[in-house]
Design brief:
Blueprint: H1 2-15, H2 19-36, H3 49-53, E1 73-79, H4 80-86, E2 108-109, E3 112-118, E4 127-135, E5 140-154, E6 157-162, E7 171-174, E8 179-188, E9 210-212, E10 215-227, H5 229-239, E11 242-243, H6 257-265, E12 271-272, E13 284-286, E14 291-297, E15 305-310, E16 314-318, E17 322-323
Parallel strand pairs: 11-12
Antiparallel strand pairs: 1-14, 2-3, 3-4, 4-8, 5-6, 5-7, 5-10, 9-17, 10-15, 10-16, 13-14
Helix pairs in contact: 2-6
């Protein structure tokens, strides 16, 4: 799945290589991210995108401080060529997974167990799905937890996604017996919003075009638990109000056209760290290596964690075609 996402990312880059267009696309994505990143919390990307897309390695130069102290500062290098595409623990679930195959269902892994229930009392024409994620392993220092988001698929291919009412995913210590719940992964009409598209060959549909043909569809609930040095470092950077922008999404340097556009068009929220002069303490950018080095507290890290749980499909039957004019 991550390989197909990388291919889409490359195609997107080829389709819009100009700094202006790339900046507009990035601003649109960041506005979506900022909307769900309030309070320093995060929505999580499906299918281990962050683990697949980022280089994680401790800095080994002579300037790196010793790590014997419990709260010592360590460093991780982030690959700028992939940062904007796949960093994205603040990227709402699955827009980059559109038109790709849903992962095989799995509801238990690495001491995490997913539970999903359909509320039978939901009104006709609507679906209400609750999800929870339970942990029964050894205590961990820190992890990002997404108890449940959802995708809509037809014949196993993603055509829509739902963040649910509980958009904010917790970030913090994880203890044995902890349970996280999203009581409204989906709550309402399933076919209310436009189906998603790849972004490569999009053509604006006519109002009479069919958005959802009649037939059977499948809803899958996705739950995640993630921990990595990159996540810790980028979360710490977000707490300061910044993110690492991908090098392919613009020319990011102090005073650049893209930084100026961002400053006037982003509408608040997170800002590209590459636009700052000086950089925040401990942050460095190596343009030759195309990496950013970010600090994190070693006490917050107790090992890699990459768990993606996918529910069994919930079948939803549409008894008539829905056009684009019908949506909303």
């Amino acid at each position: 799945m991550s390989a197909s996402i990388d291919g889409s990312a490359a195609a997107l880059g080829a389709a819009d290589a100009s700094p202006g267009g790339a900046t507009r696309g990035l601003i649109a994505r960041r506005r979506r991210r900022n909307a769900v990143a309030a309070g320093g919390t995060s929505a999580l990307a499906i299918g281990g995108l962050l683990a697949a897309g980022l280089t994680q390695r401790d800095r080994a130069d002579n300037n790196a401080p010793a790590s014997a102290e419990p709260n010592a500062i360590e460093y991780v290098d982030v690959d700028l060529s992939m940062s904007d595409v796949s960093q994205g623990f603040t990227e709402p679930v699955t827009s980059v997974s559109c038109l790709h195959t849903v992962p095989a269902p799995i509801t238990q892994d690495q001491d995490f167990t997913q539970s999903v229930a359909v509320d039978p009392s939901a009104p006709d024409g609507t679906l209400r799905v609750n999800a929870s994620l339970r942990y029964d392993g050894p205590d961990r220092a820190t992890a990002f937890i997404n108890p449940g988001s959802a995708v809509l698929a037809r014949d196993g291919v993603v055509i829509n996604y739902y963040l649910g009412a509980d958009k904010e995913a917790p970030f913090g210590a994880v203890a044995s017996g902890d349970t996280w719940t999203n009581r409204s992964v989906i709550s309402g009409p399933v076919f209310e919003q436009r189906p998603c598209f790849s972004g490569v060959d999009f053509v604006e549909p006519n109002p009479t075009d069919v958005a959802y043909p009649a037939g059977d569809y499948q809803v899958y609930v996705v739950s995640q638990a993630l921990a990595s040095t990159t996540l810790l470092a980028e979360h710490a950077l977000q707490d300061q109000g910044y993110f690492v922008a991908g090098s392919g999404s613009g020319a990011w340097s102090p005073g650049s056209v893209d930084c100026q556009r961002w400053a006037t068009s982003a509408g608040g929220g997170l800002s590209p760290v590459q636009c700052l002069d000086p950089l925040p303490s401990g942050v460095s950018i190596d343009t030759q290596a195309n990496t950013a080095t970010l600090p994190y507290h070693s006490a917050n890290y107790s090992g890699e964690l990459n768990v993606t749980l996918v529910s069994q499909p919930i079948t939803v039957t549409l008894d008539h075609d829905i056009t684009y004019a019908d949506l909303g």
